[in-house]
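sorry for the late reply, my laptop died twice this morning and i had to redo everyting from scratch. anyway the thing you sent over, i finally got around to it. pasting the sequence first so we're on the same page, its 316 residues, then the predicted structure underneath. double check i copied it right bc i was rushing
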Amino acid sequence: MCKRTVVLVVAFVLAVFWASNAPAAEIAIVKSDYKKYNKVISKVITGFSVESKVPVVEYDMKKDPDRGKKIFEIIKSRRPSLVLAIGPAAAAMAKREITDIPVVFVMVPDHQKYSLSADNMTGVSLQLPYKVQLATLRTIAPKIQNVGVLYNPKWSREVFEKASQAATEMGLTLVPSKVDDPEDVPSAVGTFLGKVDAVWMIPDQTVATPAAMKALIKFTYDSRVPFFTPVTSAVKKGALASLSPDYTAIGQQAGRLANQIVLQKLAAKAIPVTEPEGISIAINLSTARRLGVECNMALDIFTVAATQGYPIKVYK
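ok and here's the structure:
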């Protein structure tokens, strides 16, 4: 056997050995673990697993930073093809701990506040485009003109300003009422009386409390104006309708991003953070009946859902 042949045989054997002992391609899913969002997170993971073409391994931080740090040490040693970070805690720790493995984040409210911009990171935003939300509301309730919005400037000034601009472009007017504390909500929402045709809740941690939600629902009941919220659970308690992201669709979007990065070798920094594509609609028929809009509005909501392919939940 000639020397060149021996070299080729040795090279082939080494290549087979390295390939057989190299870690298989996998994606590490790291959950921040918020028990009240378990069903939502399960939907995200289901959507991701259906779309992704690479096997996944799940890790749960259980709200424990020390546990999270150990998880990321394991991840760095295993060197997966990609990390899917679910929730703010997982995403923030991935930003700190991982610099040379691509990271896709999901389920992070107002991701810009968490400074998740990095060369190895991209993700799917949790915020539905304002124009999409307002256009859907306008379709459901075409007579709406003045829309009341509660918000805390400390947290949501920029959100309100962007939403207000989108509303103006659509011929709507957002009527603001500012709150600094959840206890301010009952009096603040009272300023809407006689001034608004509907109340729209934007994501704001001051307003999104059980007590604040109860006050908003009571006001809209008493004043007979529709209350639109991004929180589906609020519809169970009496809000008229909700427009929220379709969490399975968010998982599927993240799965497609992962395929682009892992299989098509596209750099994460080349992919902008994307807006959620799917919307889930919920309606409370008892509230619609109380407001006197049951037939028309319910029909409009079902029409929008059917036309756009949005999932819809109905509560009585």
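Residues 130-245+279-315 form a domain with the Rossmann fold fold (CATH 3.40.50.2300).
thats about all i looked at so far, will dig more tmrw
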